[in-house]
Every structure is written in C-alpha cells, then in structure tokens.
Fold this sequence. Notes:
Layout: E1 21-28, E2 31-40, H1 104-116, E3 127-130, E4 136-139, H2 186-193, E5 211-215, E6 222-226, E7 238-243, E8 249-250, E9 257-261, E10 264-269, E11 277-281, E12 288-297, E13 303-313, E14 329-330, E15 334-335, E16 344-349, E17 361-369, E18 380-391
Antiparallel strand pairs: 1-2, 3-4, 5-6, 7-18, 8-11, 9-10, 10-18, 11-17, 12-16, 12-18, 13-14, 13-15, 13-17
Amino acid sequence: MADVKARELPTSQAFDPTTDYLLAIKGDASGARSGPYKVPAQNVSVGSATSGGGGSGGGGGTVVGGIAKVFGREGPEISAAANDYTAAQVDFDPTTSGLAADNVQTAIDAVAALRETLPVPGSEGDVLTADGAGSWSSQPPTLVSVFGREGAVDAMSGDYHADQIAQVKTVGEDPNVATTNRFVTAAQIAKLTSLNEALQMPDPSSATLGHVATIVDSSGTKVWAAAAPTGGGGGGGGLSQIDLFPFFRGDSANPPSWVYSSGAATWQFSSSGTQPLFAEIDYWPGGTATINFTYSCSVTSGNIQWFFIINPVTPASAELLTKAWSNQQALGSVAVADNVNKILRVTGTISGIDGVAAGDHVRISCWRNNGASGNAAGTAILRGCTLRFTFS
Length: 392
C-alpha cells in the first residue's frame, strides 16, 4: 500500500461503503501502536464525538454503513457470549439424521416430538415393546431363562422327559386330534420285557357287560364270557345279564323311533307295520337264557305283544349275514296298564332256540306284534331289554 499522509478528517464527509476504504491506526493518547490498517468504509462508524485528530473544530465525521455494536455490545474487541444466537438462527444439515429440519431449533422440536411417543422407562432390564397399534410400552423381557438357565443355553440331558414329547403323526391320522407321547421309560421297557404272554388277557373288544375272562381249554386259552356258576356245598348257581339296549340298531327300511327326552332314551313303536330292532352278541355264554322286555303304552286299553328271533352261528362254520332267520318266538300278550305309560315287563325263555350253544356268535331281532294279540292303538314304548343267563 502506498504511503498516505494522515490528515484531519473533515467535519462532514460522506463515504460510499461499496467503494471507499479508510486507513486506521490503533493507539491512544500516547501515540500509534499498530497500523495503519486498510478498512472498508462499511465496517467503520464514527459518532458525533470529537475524533482524535479532528482539531479544534471538533465535531467529527459520520461513516455511513459501519458497525456500531455487535450483539448489543460496544468496544474494539467483542468476544462470543451465551445467547448471541437462538437455535433457530443456526443452520442444521439433516443429511445424517433424516429429520425434516433446516435449523437447530426445528431439529430439537422434531426430536422432542419423537420423545413424547416413547414410554416412560420402567425397571432395569425392561425392553421397549410395540403393541401393534402404534403405541409402545416398557415391559420386562418375555424370556428370562430356559430350563432354569440364563445366557446362551445349549441342550443338555434332563431338559425333557418322555411324557413331554408329542408323538409324530403317521399317514392317515387326523392332524386335528390331540397327540400323546409314544415313548417309554427304561422302567417301562423292563416291565414289558418281563411279561409272560401265556398270562395275557384276551382282547377286551369282544367282551360285553357282565363278561369275565374264562379259560376254555387245557392249553389255557381264554375268552370273555358270562360269569361262571358260583356257590358251594353242592348247591347254588350263577347269574349273569347282558343289557341289549345299548346295542340295538333300528331296521334300515322301517325302524322304530329313537326318542331322547327328559334324560331318558326309549325306542317307540307305532301301532301298525313291523319295525324291527337288531343286536349282536359275540359270545353266547350258555346256560338257561331268558329275554326280558320292559315297556309302557300311550293308551289304557288293548294288548301289547312282543316277538323275537335269534340267529346263532358257530365260529368257522358259516357266514352269519347269509344265514336265514328262523324260529320266530312270541311272548305272551299282555293288557296295557290302567294308567298311561305305566311300566310293564314280560319275560320269555330262549335257551336252545335254533340250536344256539355256548360260544356261538348270535344275532337277535325283536319287534312289536301289531296283529290281533297286540291290538293297543297307542305307541308302545320300549324302555329296556335284557338277556339273563343262569347256570345250575
């Protein structure tokens, strides 16, 4: 910069801050200490007070466009101080955070809004859990331990026992049916190994009410049959009974009506036509047999009569379904009761009919006779039917 001789400022002088410059010398009454400095006119403001080199005229000059104060503070050196700027005046780059904000204040507001959606912290170790509806809560961890162990848990002996392991479904099994385990313990295996097959019981599916396991030959073969005679001293006998009611099935073409009412189940026969019932007995016990019908009627005049027929087949001798029915039996004709639906019972002996013998597989059919001997006009209601066997 070329040397410029200092001269007194005019009492009034306008400067163009876009083009003019001033030279400034830093010092005090003792003289200059540094400078001169080239300063743009727009950065200098001189007040009305007398300048240091203004001479006797005083007054000083005014610099248009200069800086008089910074953040409301005056002086040659102004340091930064708290509250010089508000957060809204500080630029914010959202590139990393992803917040929709262009200054620090809006960024703070966005973070505060997010904070309001978070749950109040819970106990130590709780985790932040979403409820699926846009809300969050602080909850204890769902899984605390496995098999009583924490941390990285590996499988080890004793974690499960056989009763806790579900069976594997096989082909054809209903996948909706609950399963049970198919494992056995060492103790159970030992029991199975020690079983004596000669002492095993026969298949219980062939048994019916009142049957007992009976040895039928010298080899120890066992079957389910009616209870054997009991008693001592050369006297007494045995009695067994088979309830046919649970085994009855109606004829496919013209069955009686199965009526369940007020906790009671009955077969109901009309006063016309033939409406047979059928049942099967897997093993005929032998002895002396009777059949018993317990019934009532919906009218108080006329008679009721029951028919029955049996169809026995000795195993390995014929096909039961192709054997013809024969030897129809009629029980006594009985007058209906003097009160509607009053219970009556009639019994007939059936031993020896159609050559039936102990051990036979037997079909039984029964129906109401609506002929002259069974002329009651009302409904006959069968309430029970049993076979009774006696052994002398």
